[in-house]
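Aim 2 progress update. The chain analyzed this quarter is reproduced below.
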Amino acid sequence: MRRLLPKSLIGQLLALVAITLLIAQAINSVLLYRGVQNQKIVESSASAVARIAGEIERIDERGFRPHRYRSDGSLRNRRNRPSVTGESTVTDAQNRLHDVEDRAIRAFDNLGINILAIKVARVDSLPANMANSVIGLRRDRERMRVAGSRRMDHRIEGFILMSAKIEEGRWLNVASVVRDRNPRLIRTLLFQTAVIYLILLIPLIWLGRYISRPLKALTKGAENFKPGVSAPIDESGPPDTKQLIAAFNDMNKRVGAMLDEKDLMLGAIGHDLRTPLAALRVRVESVDDDDERERMIAGIDDMDRTLDDILSLARLGRSNETAEQTDISALIETVADEFSDMGAEVSFTRGDRAIANIQATLIRRALRNLIGNAVKYGNRAMITVDKTDDKLLIHVDDEGPGIPEDQIDAMFEPFVRKEMSRNRATGGSGLGLTLARAIVRDHGGDVILQNREQGGLRASVILNLN
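Predicted structure tokens:
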């Protein structure tokens, strides 16, 4: 059921209202149809009661007249006059209308007419012996259906047969036509439903768009949210939506202010730490012992790199560099040449151009971290590029021992290094992978690690081409 519902707010709102309205209109149509059918029966039965009551009054005034028969032996009777028979024309096999019988008895009681029994039935075809005792039939314009005949005017739906027992062995029988008073009822109901749908759904569509348009703007703003950089969203829509957007804009301002304070603090920390490190390095240059001096300089350089990584990670997302269309293959080739010039074994075969909208300086740093890890812990780096319709995959393979599967996710945590092969003695702050993944994720991609079947580790950078 959920798959059939629209995904948007306005779509779900309209679908819910449409379904509810359809159910309500269906119930209303059924009730209306039943009411119309009951009204037809009430009208026909009322005519039959009136005709029998009139005949009883005539009999009381003039008495019974002997029946007159035609030459063929059939009973002669004036048209539209109830027939007089020894038994009821209504049989138990017919569709008896007991509620109509009860109403008819009450009607005769109200008229002061004593009826011993009464039987009422609804039939589709008129019995042959009732052809001259029909109410509401016009011979010159309509045809009735008699037993064995299929010809009947389309406006006649059937007949109400009523038999009233006025004394033992004497029944008055009359038939009343049940007409379709509204032959366009179905079309009327459909037209009514369409009008109601238009009256209700058009304002709902407008209301839904009025609500959903600012919500879509808020969703887009949240997806592209960059603290302190994103422009405020226009406050529009209903009051509740305006309050939500206003709260989001206030949050953006507060987060931006906090990040500005953080940047100021980080700048101060960086300045306060780098100044004594620079002074310490100057002093270290005066150490006479060459080995001791080199170890001290290496330690200072390591501290400086660690500080640089920490500051870069903390400032990520606040870079002043704008994203530009960049040839990724040329960028990789530049980084690979840098390592090759330093004597590292790095291989990359440049293929077709792959253009992506990136901040080149940050992506270059992420690639340096990954290639540097491959060279340092896996002896060499082999770089390949795979391209799909909307994704670019940069694979950096090495020939090292790899990483246990249960420790791969932990490698992206800050200051985490694999023991033995990735300890402090080999250098590194434990922030290389953390910083690389943070940079790529800031571009909408990701960095994943996986062990190669032929040995070694593969670090894959996934970038969006669109």
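The domain at 322-464 is CATH 3.30.565.10 (Heat Shock Protein 90). The mean pLDDT is 79. These observations will guide the mutagenesis experiments scheduled for the next reporting period.
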